[in-house]
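Running low. Any example?
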Amino acid sequence: MKTPSLSAAALLAALVLPGKFAPADTISSADSFLPAVHINGASGVYRTDVTIFNPDPSLAAVVDLYYTEADRDGTTRPVHRIPGNLAPLASVTFSDIVLSTFGLASSYGLLEIKSSPATSSKETPVHVTSNTYNAAGAVPGTYGQFSPGQPSRNSVGFDNSVAGDLYVTGIPNDESHRTNAVVMNPTGIPLEAGVRLWDASGIPYKAVLVSVPPYSLHQLNDIFNGDFASASPPPGGPWRLNVFVNVPNGARALCYATVTDLRTGDPYLLTGQLARP
């Protein structure tokens, strides 16, 4: 019996498409980190709402929330547990979480969300999303910055290879934007991290070292007029930041940058990304 031949389209697809796709990633995690605020900032009045979703169709999740103010040691931070656990396929939103849940009227820091199974040994990862918005805009509402929970598995430790860097890309340098860069420490070990600025051609300009206490974060404010001003980075872009762990003590790092449009006070988030899956 004659074997049917491949069509031209099928043959082209077989030649062009890769034989194996990279593994998919997700924000679903049993341990994730994100910024949270209730502050009057340089370009607005900012609040953070957080939503947690349990995607498991049959298992409830025990969900614990931890908050540490920036540049503070979070080793002994208190825990807030969601009452009654989070039911299968259920969601919960914490409006203005820093004030409503942690009782802090002027604060900025690192939020950790940990989940564990209520009645099983199986893991119950959850999805964590948030919106940090300017509550003092000309028109009432919550336009602002979406921020996903960053899974702890996406953090980097000390490593001199490409696997030891997180990349924050697409940063503008002009009079209409202000950029703050943040290094987060998702471990109970003091972190010394490097933050290096690169131009669009891949030329490094300057690196700074920052110290981040356990379970906390450190912010570099207005980077082009602050920590990197002495390198005289010219206007334009896109600029890039590389974040790496500088000391092999077991600490790890996550990061992001917030870019605020000074014309509107509206921020957007650029998360630090691994070089490869």
